[in-house]
Design brief:
Blueprint lengths: L1 E3 L4 H6 L4 E7 L4 H17 L4 E6 L4 H6 L7 E6 L2 E7 L5 H9 L3
Helix pairs in contact: 2-4
Length: 105
Amino acid sequence: MLELNKENFQEEVLDAKGYVLVDYWSPSCEPCKALMPHVHKLEEAHGEKIKFTSLDITKARRLAIGQKVLGLPVIAIYKDGEKIDAVVADEATEKSVEEMVGKYI
């Protein structure tokens, strides 16, 4: 999974062609950390169709707010730089993330 930061977010997500999944998380977010192994499994299964990335929002708070990430966890799908789907907070479960990814593979 590609680690995003303030320097590479534009290039890897907003300027990217095709689908990019961004896992917004923070080290203090227990639900985020619980979801992470499941997201890694999805990457193993579908990494050739969707680019899987993650952003620790504690290192890029303004960037996250600019992407309308106001609570965690957030798993978002971008297509050609445009956010097209997301599961947020309590909606972000293993099942909901899998279903969202399934729509774009």
